[in-house]
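User: Sequence recovery, please. Input:
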């Protein structure tokens, strides 16, 4: 009651069976009906995060932050890892969620960037943590760095060798592993999937009613974990699951998404093989979502989609660097870009140093995509970025880094355009934003003030309540 709905003040709304069934000024509560007093706040469609990694986000709770903004220097990293090593010694038997000898008692670090301490390998990590297995994930998610105990646990000095294990000129493992998440998980015997209840609560507090998990290695194991979490109420969001080509829709109230294809400039896959993969996904009735964070990766992906026949619903994930010549080719195809503007805030100061000057104006573009008619959806890429979509919206509007730089001012979005990044349908990021209207799904986000006031702030602290499928999943202060 007393909500602002699409510009109309003091309006009431009723839901039934997961749908909006009535909207008006004169609605009165029915007996035994739950009533939420909106106190004049704006009632918006619930937010959908179009690119997130749920299990990695859940694992973050048992991880040590090893990069900005928490850790900025060599000394700070050393103190952090030493403290984690001490805590590992004091850990009670049974505390570790990973099973098996290989998986016990690891220190797990996340978010590392070379600005902290340069290139890390096993020898440098041994100085800080010589006696416990340690693995640190690069903030891109594409690389793990292990100390010598960790290298030994995984058998990398004892005959285990595979693509992605870096070795020096003498064949000794450096401790740096690329694109081997699934193998590491299997090698560690990590039979326990992290609980997802805290993730569900966190996202509900942001007004998120739906997510698309964009993890390329999702298989039947992850599908079952998400389905179980949804059925048990741990995840109160609608869930779309991307993943491997052979991932098939199984049980549970979750949806099958695109085939996720991970491109890395370090080792691009064969062009013809990529074209064939696109065709195979389409033949199976699925779209493709191609990970592109460099200019070269985007050029490669666009060329392959052009050759393989892009179709509506095919996605480019990130499109971190999109110069005009590539943008023109991309805009001629029926492609969607899913962007993460929060990286401008969190990583922009490093981009100003690390990214080639000629590419800096084209980082995480906003208005440029819309001007060219490219469908544009938004994701957080959590845990590799903040899971708070309001931070992403604010970054899309201001394009201001933590250090105060403005990157690509001509790419700024309006608050309404930024909100639309997260209110378009799960199956159509960048399409027509969902509405608060009769007949629509009762997935709603209530703010504690009018939109005219909220648009000047764009902060998750404004979320007063979240309703998913007609059920209250979050209420501020309760």
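Assistant: Recovered sequence (478 residues):
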């Amino acid at each position: 009651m007393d909500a602002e709905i699409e510009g109309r003040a003091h309006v009431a709304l009723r839901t039934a069976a997961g749908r909006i069934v009535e909207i008006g000024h004169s609605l009165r509560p029915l007996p035994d009906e739950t009533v939420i007093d909106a106190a004049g706040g704006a009632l918006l469609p619930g937010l959908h995060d179009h690119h997130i990694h749920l299990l990695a986000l859940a694992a973050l709770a048992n991880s040590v932050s090893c990069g900005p903004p928490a850790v900025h220097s060599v000394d700070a990293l050393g103190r952090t890892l030493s403290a984690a090593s001490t805590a590992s010694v004091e850990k009670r038997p049974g505390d570790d969620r990973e099973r098996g000898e290989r998986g016990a008692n690891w220190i797990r670090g996340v978010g590392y960037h070379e600005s902290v301490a340069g290139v890390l390998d096993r020898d440098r990590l041994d100085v800080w943590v010589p006696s416990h297995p340690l693995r640190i994930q690069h903030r891109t998610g594409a690389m793990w760095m292990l100390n010598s105990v960790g290298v030994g646990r995984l058998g990398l000095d004892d005959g285990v060798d595979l693509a992605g294990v870096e070795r020096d000129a003498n064949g000794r493992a450096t401790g740096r592993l690329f694109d081997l998440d699934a193998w590491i998980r299997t090698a560690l015997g990590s039979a326990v999937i992290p609980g997802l209840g805290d993730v569900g609560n966190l996202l509900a507090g942001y007004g998120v009613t739906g997510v698309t998990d964009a993890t390329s290695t999702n298989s039947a194991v992850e599908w079952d974990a998400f389905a179980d979490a949804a059925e048990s109420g741990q995840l109160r969001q609608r869930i779309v699951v991307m993943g491997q080509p052979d991932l098939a829709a199984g049980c549970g109230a979750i949806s099958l998404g695109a085939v996720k294809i991970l491109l890395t400039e370090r080792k691009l896959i064969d062009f013809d093989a990529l074209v064939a993969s696109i065709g195979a996904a389409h033949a199976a009735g699925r779209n493709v979502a191609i990970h592109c964070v460099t200019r070269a990766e985007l050029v490669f992906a666009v060329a392959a989609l052009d050759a393989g026949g892009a179709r509506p619903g095919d996605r480019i994930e990130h499109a971190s660097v999109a110069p005009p010549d590539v943008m023109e080719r991309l805009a001629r195809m029926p492609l969607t870009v899913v962007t993460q503007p929060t990286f401008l805030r969190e990583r922009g100061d490093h981009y100003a140093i690390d990214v080639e000057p000629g590419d800096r104006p084209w980082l995480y573009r906003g208005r440029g995509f819309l001007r060219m008619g490219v469908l544009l959806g938004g994701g957080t890429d959590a845990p590799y970025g903040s899971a708070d979509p309001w931070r992403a919206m604010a970054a899309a509007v201001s394009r201001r880094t933590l250090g105060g730089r403005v990157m690509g001012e001509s790419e700024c979005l309006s608050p309404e355009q930024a909100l639309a990044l997260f209110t378009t349908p799960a199956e159509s990021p960048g399409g027509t934003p969902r509405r608060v209207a009769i007949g629509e799904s009762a997935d709603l986000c209530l703010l504690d003030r009018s939109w005219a006031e909220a648009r000047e702030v764009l902060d998750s602290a404004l979320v007063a309540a979240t309703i998913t499928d007609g059920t209250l999943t979050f209420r501020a202060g309760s």
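DSSP finds 16 helices and 21 strands in the chain.
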